[in-house]
Amino acid sequence: MKTQEKAPMVEGASHNTGGFGDGLANAARSIIADARRAIADPELSEAEAVHEVRKALKRWRALMRLLAYAIGEPADQMRTEARELMRSIAGARDAQAALDALTDLKKADGAISATSLDTMRKRLTELRDAAEATTFTQETREKISRYLDFATLSLERWPLKGIDFSTVTDALTVTYRRARQLVPDNWPEADAEHLHDLRRRVVEHRHQMDLVEHLWPRLGKVWAEEAQRLRNQLGACQDLAVLTHYTSPHQPLAPWRSRLVPAVQERHAAHIKTAERLAGRLFAEKPKAFHNRITALWSARHARKHRHA
């Protein structure tokens, strides 16, 4: 699958005033630019375009949740509208998730025959293509474009320049706490909905941490990679849950249920084991310690900038 290179988050913070708003504005503009490219790029297939748009909107929603602490209702409204746009083009996502899960099943013991996998893959591909034809239409593209136009205007109107890092730190800590609270006490017993909710919070946390990665590049890079790995493991669990749904009675993959379910359970257990280990590292700190560490890193960086000014 062809994917776009994500526009870099621009540091842009004013070290003379301690403000962080310029960096947030730059981050917002880069997300909008990525979404526009996904809509307009003729080299992207429908599936690739949907994937890139959804990815950009996830980053946007994470930023809007952060900005809501300073901007209030307008940012919350933008986040809600972005969620509705994502839902409007999610029809093809379920079939693609099941396709990804089929690929994952190749790693299971007693792998399903290549012939069966090919047949299932064809059925799911047909479902995905049909969903794309009815959801990611020209009308939908134009609706997303209008939303991006309004988002661009909103950035010009919002008092982003005055946002300081303490506000950002508070917002980052709230997101961290929300994700940490969802870490299961008993991972093997966690249901698909619980894991999906955790994944959403990890995605949000990962995108918000992109904004401050430059404060400590080495540690920030490791942190982002750990969050991404956890996100991937939880995403694989979600894909397997979607695939299992397609094996229910009267669903396209029902004839293969008896062969798929054991392989799904095996791969699910493997992903859960890895996710538990990653989450234990990523969320080892209590929220207060997380808050204090980010604040200290910002203060140290700010002090260095003043010394070298």
TrEMBL record:
Residues 17-288 form the CHAD domain. It comes from the Bacteria. InterPro entries: CHAD_dom, CHAD_dom_sf. It holds the Pfam family CHAD. This is CHAD domain-containing protein. The lineage of its organism: Bacteria, Pseudomonadati, Pseudomonadota, Alphaproteobacteria, Hyphomicrobiales.
